[in-house]
Amino acid sequence: MRKAISRRPKMADVARMAGVSVTTVSRSYNEPDAVSEKIRLRIAEAARSLAYVPNVMAGSLAAARSKTVAVVVPTLNNSVFALMLEELGGVLNRRGYQIMVSSSDYVLEREEELVKSLLSWSPAGIVLVGRHHSRGTLRLLVEDGLPVVEVGEYLEGAIDSNIGFSHRDVGRRIGRHFADLDIGRLGLALVALPGDHRAADRAVGFREAVHEAGLHLEEFALSERASSKGGATAFADLMGRPERPQAIFFSNDMLCLGALFEAGRLGIRVPDDVKLCGYGDFDFAATSSPSLSSVRPPDREIGRRAGELLLERFQGEGAPVSINLGFEHIVRASG
Known about the structure:
Blueprint (H helix, E strand, L loop, with lengths): L10 H8 L3 H9 L6 H14 L5 H8 L4 E6 L5 H15 L4 E6 L4 H12 L5 E5 L5 H10 L3 E4 L9 E4 L2 H14 L4 E7 L5 H17 L2 E7 L5 H12 L7 E4 L2 H14 L8 E3 L16 E3 L2 H16 L7 E3 L3 E3 L5
Parallel strand pairs: 1-2, 1-3, 3-4, 4-5, 5-11, 6-7, 6-8, 8-9
Antiparallel strand pairs: 10-12
């Protein structure tokens, strides 16, 4: 007796079960707005019953572009990018698109390799973080001609479209805030990874504001990823110097949390002896004791706007734009 060979369900099987044409099933996946909600639900139920999985590559061969959007972020170990990706994916998923996510580890050459690989899948569009890219990456994207959205920074002269804010202005805002409190000695704890240009821009803005106010500045740079341990190390070093800071700006909330822990171990009172401010407004910032001042980037709005912008471009609507969403400086108990 021959063993039965299982067959992968096809679009025609879904069409028969749902009582519609194959064309309608195809349209429900590729152009969901062109099919009524009642029919879409019937098709979706049939697909679930049959365990049907659309052949994405087959669709991409016919349409020249797949129903995917490629995304390259510097790291996956950061809630800032996680929130952006969650919102971006949600907006695109509702219109039948999926995201493919890769991490460059803050290395431009790695980003170029990833972009080259991702373009081989014929994505409908691509999202990159920041404004710094290799010449090879720029050439690949210009030659391909697909919609590109650079996110996380506001810039002029983008490859295509851009949604973000000025990290330099973030640093300037915090520097001016401390200066307005009549604080004469300031500190800066910076994660100085070679490819983290956004953190570097925040540091530049902070230094500018401190210099303009004529204040004293002590700095500590870490060459490793942001961690509470690194923040504790930076805090202990800065507070052990002769010109002990009265307020410190950290390039990441995780560093700021480590500094808060170290302050407790050293018997240094926050904010009475030293004020602290981080960046990112991570969940723990509002619930720490004392709560941590921070800067809240518009991560979710960046993801949502990027998704909406791409969908417009996929429909042949809209034009390249640059959008400055700004940011929010949140002053809490730590100063």
